[in-house]
Design brief:
By secondary structure, this protein is mainly alpha-helical. It is built from 14 helices and 3 strands. Strands 2-1-3 form a 3-stranded mixed sheet. A hairpin with a 4-residue loop joins strand 1 and strand 2. Pathway: Protein modification; protein ubiquitination.
Length: about 240
């Protein structure tokens, strides 16, 4: 693989790979590896509780479609038990012949119909269109119903959207829902903006609601300062 300058300087037969070309090729290779891993994870998720899953009870309630009721706006969406069973929580309801399994109705509280519909869509396809609010809502739902693949999908999206304006809110949300990747990304941005941190309204709200998180921020910041000072001493 050669860049334009490589081709001009060398005959194609003799040309090696310049540093820029090598780095670009390495990045492309890493990207492809990540894409392959993502696709493998999707396939593994979609294979969960397939229609031929021997662990699902062969009863009429297990094979019939179920209704999921969004209690916040009293709307319902249907889903097949194989798709629903990709959630360990829903799968347990079906396997243990709980009231929801017998009635064919699962009530989900504190969720809108749009979020519920997106949640069901993900259980069928391992994909969903996200904006920042939908990602937050689906992550909460995924955590509640133990759909780890969806939680990771939403967390990855939210991590890519962290910026100076939402870092504090993202940090608090991530702690509440044990989203480690999002914690690291938001905390890193907070560290880079400590000088203006206390001026932000989000900081004052966090100090009032959960002072332990503020302590954690400052502990991390001081630890970083110590490490930086120690490195400077080492190189003197």
């Amino acid at each position: 693989m050669w860049c334009h300058s490589c081709r001009e300087e060398y005959d194609e037969e003799d040309a090696g790979t310049c540093k820029e070309c090598y780095e670009e090729a390495s990045e492309t290779e890493e990207e492809l590896k990540r894409e392959i891993e993502d696709l493998k994870a999707k396939v593994a998720f979609l294979r969960l509780s397939s229609p031929l899953d021997p662990h699902l009870p062969h009863t009429s309630s297990a094979s019939a479609d179920l209704l999921l009721h969004a209690a916040s706006d009293s709307q319902e969406a249907s889903a097949s038990s194989p798709a629903i069973s990709r959630s360990p929580v829903f799968k347990a309801m079906l396997e243990n012949e709980m009231a929801e399994s017998r009635s064919g109705m699962i009530k989900i509280f504190d969720v809108s119909y749009d979020v519920l519909r997106s949640f069901i869509h993900y259980l069928y396809t391992a994909d969903v269109l996200l904006d920042e609010q939908m990602a937050c809502n689906l992550l909460i739902l995924a955590e509640k119903y133990q759909v780890k693949h969806l939680k990771a999908f939403c967390e990855k999206f939210m991590t890519s959207k962290v910026n100076n304006e939402n870092a504090i809110a993202s940090f608090a949300f991530a702690h509440q829902h044990n989203a480690k990747q999002l914690i690291e990304a938001s905390l890193s941005l907070i560290m880079d903006n400590m000088a203006t941190l206390t001026q932000r309204e989000e900081y004052k709200e966090l100090l009032e609601k959960d002072p332990r998180l503020v302590v954690h921020i400052y502990e991390t910041y001081l630890a970083r300062q110590v490490n930086t000072a120690a490195k400077k001493l080492t190189f003197k």
